[in-house]
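Quick one - inputs below.
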Amino acid sequence: MKRLLFIWIWVSMLFLMAFPLSAASGTASDTASDELNVKEMILEHLADTYEWKIVGWKNGHVTVPLPVILCSKTSGWHVFMSSKLHNDDNSHNGFYVAHEGKYKGKIVEKDVSGSEIRPFDLSLTKNAASLIFSSVLLIIIIMSVARSLKRNPMEAKKGFIGLMEMFIMSINDDIIKPAVGKDHMRYAPFLLTLFFFIFLNNVLGLIPLFPGGANVTGNIASTFVLAVATMLVINLTGTKEYYKEIFWPDVPKWLKAPIPLMPAIELIGVFTKPFALMIRLFANITGGHSTVMGLTAIVFVTASMGTTINASMSALSVVFTVFIMFVELLVAYIQAYVFTMLSAVFIGMARVESHHKEKELIETKHITVNK
Amino acid sequence: MSLLTPEPGLVFWMSLSFGIVAFILMKYGFPIILQMVNKRKDFIDNSLLAAQQAHEELAKVKENSEAILAQTRLEQTKMLESAAQTRDRIVEEAKELARTEADKIVAAAQKRIETEKENAMRAIRSEIALLSVSVAEKILREKLGTEEEQSKMINRLMDEVIISKS
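Output:
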């Protein structure tokens, strides 16, 4: 545990050193409105940002600037720190963060006609930085377990390594083995990576302190990549029988002959499975973050309603938030579990053996029994 | 709606990080963990099996040793018995031998005594005969010292012979 804490502090320090803090005094836009817009606040949290705001107050904020990488159609590649966007006219080389319109919250530039266009945006945003942090953390954790096991495989592990070993083996034995079937050893590393990647990002998203608190698995781009990876694994390692069942399933001929009704449905199924995975994870994590933000916002919304109401509602808000945080901890595990289990089930379905063989086997058994 | 459209930049970073993480963990992380845990599981299973086998073998050895011990005890008593028998027999035989030997010696001694006695008797007899002859001679010489006496004697002897002849 101490070691984990040490790693945590070390990586945090690395981040802070790499991107020097900008403790800026408040700019015009920060003090523009005292009125709190809850919907805006929640949406702003859920969306991605170009810098990592750690803490903010009335006249300032502590923010980790992150690199912005852009490829403009007119002026080519640009790489600069996001802190450069906070100058007098809030723009750098003609790039600025749009405050309204179609590209709200994104970096845009003006084309010749004066309308806003988006350059190709590869910026290392808050979610991307959090992603890199969690990836490094995950690699450190799993590799330390692997190294410890490799160095002394016959020793029963204690502490954090023992916990991780038990965790990994429980996922392997309870989800992957029964769901995938006989060649689970081939898919276990991928599915375990999937599980721990999702789980770690879910849990990091629940920690409100830097470098947690980003909404990585609640962002559709992350779940999209995870779903695509699962889809590739399912379809690239599918058996002949799996493809036969898609394009020439065992149904009456008129369902597939002139109009390929069943093949069309099956083909749609190939894409809906990972799509459902993508939406499920995204929606659950987004919902959790929104709920926590909304419940926290009760404190600020009731601030203008008098001390008594504000105090009682604040207490209620804390109680509810604590409760929802526990639920979210459960959801963090359950969603990683569900994503992994469904991926394993889909892989198991794609590894299907020929049914005709089984039928023949059963028939021959019957014949031998009857004789 | 912007929440539901994947941002290309984040898709890029996500693909990159997930790809690297998946590559490292699928190659050096999880396979090794699973392999090592399975190895340990096999080791523990084998150890348990071996321990059970050893236990069984130990029990068998114990049983064997007890059987051997019992057999040895049986043999020991048997040996003791036969030794006692042998001893008795030897003693008996020795006694028998001693008896016959003694008998023999005694017989020989008796025989010898007998012959000695006979010899002695014979010697005594001849001595006595000689003695009696000499005594008789002396007596006769004394008795038949005179002529008259001699003729009386002859007469008597003559009478005796005639009487015995008639």
